User: What shape does this take?
Amino acid sequence: MNHLRRSALLLASDLAATLVFLAVLLVTRNLMLAVAIGVGLGVAQIVWLLLRCKPIDAMQWLSIGLVVLAGAATMLTDDARFVMLKPSVIYCVVGTFMLRPGWINRYLPPIALQAVPDLAYAFGFVWAGLMYASAALNVVLALSLDPIAWSLAISIWGVASKVALFLVQFATMRTIGRRRLGVA
Assistant: This one.
């Protein structure tokens, strides 16, 4: 259970700025406030890691860069589409990054890497497919919904799809891994 908790915390940390942005937007209906808080949290996460001398993954740098750029463009132009389309860019970049074998190893305990490395490899590509599908869905939603409806729809999809795939992956790898290791 500790491995599940560790992986879930890493995933939550990676999604924190986006989730906070969406929550603030849904609660306050104030796009500029939500953008400012989301950007602030993303920058704060990077500063926190730097102060603690923790390694910062390339994806974390990319994510904060896009958050800052899209947030700034939205605030300067007062056009929500920059922020609304930003997830599609992130999904495509992340999906492309996820095509690199081994990216998922950061999220897995050593026993999983030992028992089911083939599944880790395969699930890396499944995650990439989810990212590309999410990017396409986000473009459709961003161009057809107002910012509030979009934020609700994309936040439900974003969280639900990732949690569902995470749980399927965890259960599959755990079940097959236990079988391979001869653990009851």
